[in-house]
């Protein structure tokens, strides 16, 4: 059995590879991370960034099962978080006042998936699968009752 650190390293590398490949310049992303600086990755090729306040993000994370969450980046200094959502999410989230979906091309300044840089940390790390948070699930999590998995709603 692989050492736990080796398993985490493999997960982080898969997430880093996916995240870097979301950029038009993956080599520049890796160079930034190698010098321990945040890498600006423009939204709009693979995902959009849906911005929320950090406190409301923490509450919403508790309402969404892990298998339904995509990557979520937080900045503890600015009290903001960014959910990576599908490219067609802006319309679905337009009526959710706590969420602002940034336009394609907006740069999200990202640390690598395995550690934090400055005041930014991944609350839910990219795992390399490309999984994003479904905007319907995200909208429901910010609603008064929160998101409930269909099987839970019947109980």
Notes on the protein architecture:
With 155 residues, this protein is α+β, with helices and mostly antiparallel strands. Helices cover 35% and strands 20% of the residues. The strands form 2 sheets. Strands 5-2-4-3-7 form a 5-stranded antiparallel beta sheet. Helix 1 crosses helix 2 (26-34). The longest helix has 18 residues, at 4-21. It is globular.
Notable characteristics:
6 helices, globular, disordered C terminus, 7 strands, 155 residues, 5-stranded antiparallel sheet, disordered N terminus
Query: Number of helix segments?
Result: 6
Q: List the strand order in the largest sheet.
A: 5-2-4-3-7
Global shape: globular
Q: Could you tell me the mean pLDDT? A: 88
Helix-residue proportion:
25-40%
Report strand %.
15-25%
Classification by helices and strands: alpha+beta
Quick recap:
The protein is of the alpha+beta class and 155 residues long. The chain has helices at residues 4-21, 26-34, 54-63, 89-93, 135-141, 150-154, and strands spanning 39-42, 48-53, 72-75, 80-85, 100-101, 107-110, 120-124.
């Amino acid at each position: 059995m692989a050492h736990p650190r080796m398993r985490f390293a493999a997960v982080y590398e898969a997430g880093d590879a996916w995240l870097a490949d979301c950029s038009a310049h993956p080599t520049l992303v890796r160079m930034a991370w190698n010098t321990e600086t945040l890498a600006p990755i423009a939204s709009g090729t693979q995902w959009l960034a849906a911005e929320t306040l950090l406190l409301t993000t923490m509450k919403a994370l508790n309402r969404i099962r892990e298998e339904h969450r995509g990557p979520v980046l937080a900045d503890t200094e600015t009290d903001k978080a960014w959910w990576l959502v599908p490219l067609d999410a802006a319309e679905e989230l337009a009526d959710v006042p706590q969420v602002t979906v940034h336009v394609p091309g907006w740069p999200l300044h990202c640390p690598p998936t395995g550690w934090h840089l400055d005041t930014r940390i991944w609350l839910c790390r990219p795992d390399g699968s490309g999984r994003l948070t479904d905007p319907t699930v995200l909208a429901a999590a910010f609603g008064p009752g929160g998101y409930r998995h269909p099987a839970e709603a019947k109980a």
